Amino acid sequence: KKPITETCLLCMCEALSGCNATAVCVNGACGIFRLTWDQWVDSGRLTIAGDSPLSESSFTNCANDPHCAADTLQNYMVKYGQDCNGDEQQNCLDYGAIHYMGPFNCQADMPYTFASIFRKCLKRAELPVKLLKVL
């Protein structure tokens, strides 16, 4: 089960790292989605092909691989997905809040810079869909 849409993943990556695929970790958060060690462990310690979940580099290798990192986020939302903003549905806004602020703090306001980039990206993605419905 994959609760997060491709568009949502793209907007998370844009808001978190500018989708800069340079293998990098900042304050322990790695890759285009700025995954943390705890998120990776909670999501089942996914690995890239040929890697062992017990190797020293398996976390950073996965976090810096867009597919492995996206699958990690999918698993994380299956485990922790919830309605964070009280609109009675689970969607991308909730997943962004859960990923950025954690599943136990996702009701709090998202930091302005992240929220601004994230919401603008989602609005840009909605525009073609709305246009197609009109046509």
From TrEMBL:
Signal peptide: 1-21
EC number, as in UniProt: 3.2.1.17
KW rRNA-binding (keyword) present: no
Keywords associated with the record: Antimicrobial, Bacteriolytic enzyme, Disulfide bond, Glycosidase, Hydrolase, Signal
The protein's enzyme class: hydrolase
Catalytic reaction equation(s): Hydrolysis of (1->4)-beta-linkages between N-acetylmuramic acid and N-acetyl-D-glucosamine residues in a peptidoglycan and between N-acetyl-D-glucosamine residues in chitodextrins
CDD domains assigned to the protein according to its UniProt record, in alphabetical order: lyz_i
UniProt cross-references to Gene3D superfamilies, sorted A to Z: 1.10.530.10
Keyword Lyase: no
MF GO annotations: lysozyme activity
InterPro entries linked: Invert_lysozyme
GO biological process, one term: defense response to bacterium
Disulfide-linked positions: C8-C92, C13-C19, C62-C68
Name recorded for this polypeptide: lysozyme
Species lineage: Eukaryota, Metazoa, Ecdysozoa, Arthropoda, Hexapoda
